Amino acid sequence: MELEITTQVLLLGVALGAVLGGVSNKTSFCTMGAVSDWVNMGDMRRMRSWFLAISIAIIGIVLLESGSIIDISGGRPPYRSSMLFWPRFLLGGLMFGVGMTLASGCTNKLLVRAGGGNLKTIFTFATVGICAFIMTRTDFYGVVFHSWMAPISFDLATLGIPDQSFGTILGSILGLENPVGTNLYVGFALVAIFLFVIMKSKDFLTSMDQLISGIVIGLLTVVTWYVTAGSMGQEWKEAAEFMEFPPPAVGPQSFTFVNPMSETIVFYTEGLNLDLITFGMCTQFGVMSGSFLYAISTGKFRFEWFANKSDFIRHIIGAVLMGIGGILAMGCTLGQGVTGVSTLAVGSFLALGSIIIGCALTLKVDYYGMVYEDESNFIKALLSSMVDLHMLPERMRKLEAV
Predict the structure, then answer these.
(1) 42 pLDDT exceeds 70?
(2) Where are the domains positioned within the chain?
(3) Tell me: the pLDDT tens digits for 4-15?
(4) Are 346 and 325 spatial neighbours (Cβ–Cβ below 8 Å)?
């Protein structure tokens, strides 16, 4: 018996997520870890792996789009919306970057650790989901954020630019007749720069785990876009339009985990209604399952719990920031940092940069706090950290560099 198209797409979401979870566990792919390695040890291998995934995702999407094989217009979330809410990308990215550092990992890492037996993630996952739920299902976002962010944002459509992808903006500035087509050239130019920097490192080229994770995660992002935005995705979308009660969140999308955590809360509060299962929920279940299967098969499954009360509080604060910041930024380190960036959306690059800065600053402040335990305070540590990251001049340093 042939499965309905909705079931096929959802099952593929589980399968693709399972590969992501297994590979992330096996190779220790971790975006927070990538920033930590860079800030604390000067080791760029995991950061290069992350940007290798980004490069492959960009190339895949621009090629598929130029060949009219996929159509990611109307993507979920709306990465290429002409409305450039730059404040939400910057603030949301910073909040998410700080949050994932406090919670010891991004949302993808939470799912991977949950599959590996880390019981901390039950509370962290639930807190992220509840905060994302509040942001998307109540007036909280509108009152606290949208009310002041909207007036200082701007609509690119008023400038004759239909969306916020780099190619479209550059093409419009240059006065090209088909500015959207420049995405292909802009994508290849960016990837050429990324790959030039990535491949300069002999350490990275000899690190098989980092190479594998970058290549596989980049390809998985492309395949997931293809499933939801290619011919199968179109059939899925058309089928939903004729349903009396269409499934939620149907449309072009790839890996993103913050909003699906909110959808999981809805699923549980509505009495485990199977009609409310979304593609994003399936991918996150897949990540946990893939990580679990890898951990069990290799003997690496380990139960973990909070070390103490302060560890619990730190994780919960981090989860709150991730839940709110992830919705503001329209994604996480994968949802914006790979999936969003693959669309060449300007907002995705703003969010990615802000996430990295938020994470790096938090790591630096933590380190200063440990070294100068008796004489440091938050402001001194923050200013010194910003000097270390070349965000402030040296004369503003308050603590000797560590």
Answers:
(1) yes
(2) 5-371
(3) 999 999 999 999
(4) no
